[in-house]
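User: Assemble these into one structure.

Assistant: Restating your components, then the assembled model:
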Amino acid sequence: MKESDNFFEKVYAVARLIPFGRVTSYGAIATYLGAARSARMVGWAMNNSHNQKEEVPAHRVVNRKGLLTGKHHFNGTNLMQQLLENEGIVVIENQIQNLEDIFWNPKDAFASEKKDL
DNA sequence: ATTTTGACGACGT
DNA sequence: GACGTCGCCAAAA
């Protein structure tokens, strides 16, 4: 375990914080972690997420366009889309519909805790 | 060790 | 607004 993994760990942590029926983007997570332009690293972390002990809901993480770009990395099938649809998310042609409505930002999680403020 | 690529995104043309 | 290029950083060839 290295401190460098901290960045990846954060990515996994945020990914697990994604609420049911919501999705987020790599860039959103990256920005939240302070690596605004390292969205690729977030995606790469997702690839490595299979190495993590805890399963990461990577299917809830899509690119900014709402495209299921990483669906190939699951079972090589439409599993990712199935999971999303299972959560009430409408996905057509590997693209999430009503994205702006279900888009979840890591900051929302923080706001949720601070809703008492 | 160098080069290429990769689940992205922002900016430039 | 579609297409092109660069940036980011890490891992695999």
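Residues 25-27, 30, 36-47, 58, 61-65, 68-73 of chain A lie near DNA strand B (CB under 10 Å from a C1').
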